[in-house]
């Protein structure tokens, strides 16, 4: 995933009045955390951040460039953000500074495919996980992980340990965690069921 460049400024005045004036002028308040640095308060353009972050999706990588000298100071991932309770707009963002080749634990969305075969679409794929935790280099975080279910047979179970992940990426959760199952249909039609009744009973069937 290509890193997104954002221009930021260090905030030296941290009082409520300055924060309010910054937000009223279209600014977004933030902070950068890191292993080898003290927390750094920053401000950035809100519209630019929302435009780029929305387009990139989850786990976007950011290059934060200081306006004062135009240098890339921090390579970051977004850790958290705060929403205003009334306007529902983003009012604060937290970044984590990382090295581009540093391994980080992140949550990646899953994208399922392969429902076109009769034995898949006429039965029930039960999806238990729509995202998983992995460890991967910060500069190689993908927007999603593809799972092809076309090769599954009735009563097959895909566990976390069974996933074929991109090179350099490892599953960072319980190996026996169930990702999805294929069960023979018991009612009308087949399809994807997102709310299974009992995971333990389902796997033992």
Protein architecture, described:
The chain is mainly beta and 205 residues long. It folds into two domains: 4-97, Ribosomal Protein L25, Chain P, CATH 2.40.240; 103-204, Ribosomal protein L25, C-terminal domain (RNA Polymerase Alpha Subunit, Chain A, domain 2), CATH 2.170.120. It is built from four helices and 14 strands. The protein has a six-stranded mixed beta barrel with strand order 1-3-2-6-5-4. A four-stranded mixed β-sheet has the order 10-7-9-12, with no helix packed on it. The chain has a four-stranded mixed β-sheet with strand order 11-13-8-14. The longest helix has 11 residues, at 46-56. The chain is elongated. The protein starts with a strand and ends with a helix. Residues 194-205 have low confidence and may be disordered.
């Amino acid at each position: 995933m290509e890193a997104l460049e954002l221009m930021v400024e260090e905030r030296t005045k941290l009082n409520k009045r300055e924060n309010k004036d910054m937000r009223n002028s279209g600014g977004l308040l933030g902070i950068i955390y890191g292993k080898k640095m003290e927390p750094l308060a920053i401000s950035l353009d809100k519209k630019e951040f929302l435009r780029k972050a929305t387009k990139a999706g989850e786990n976007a990588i950011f290059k934060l460039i200081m306006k004062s000298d135009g240098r890339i100071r921090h390579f970051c991932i977004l850790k958290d953000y705060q929403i205003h309770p009334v306007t529902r707009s983003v009012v604060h963002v937290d970044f984590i500074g990382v090295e581009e080749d540093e391994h980080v634990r992140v949550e990646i969305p899953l994208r399922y495919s392969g429902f076109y075969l009769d034995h898949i679409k006429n039965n029930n794929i039960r999806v238990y996980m729509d995202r998983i935790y992995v460890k991967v280099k910060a500069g190689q975080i993908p927007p999603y992980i593809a799972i092809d279910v076309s090769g599954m047979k009735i009563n097959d179970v895909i566990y976390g340990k069974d996933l074929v992940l991109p090179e350099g990426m490892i599953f960072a959760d319980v190996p026996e965690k169930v990702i999805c199952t294929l069960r023979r249909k018991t009612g009308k039609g087949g399809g994807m069921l997102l709310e299974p009744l009992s995971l333990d009973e389902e796997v033992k069937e």
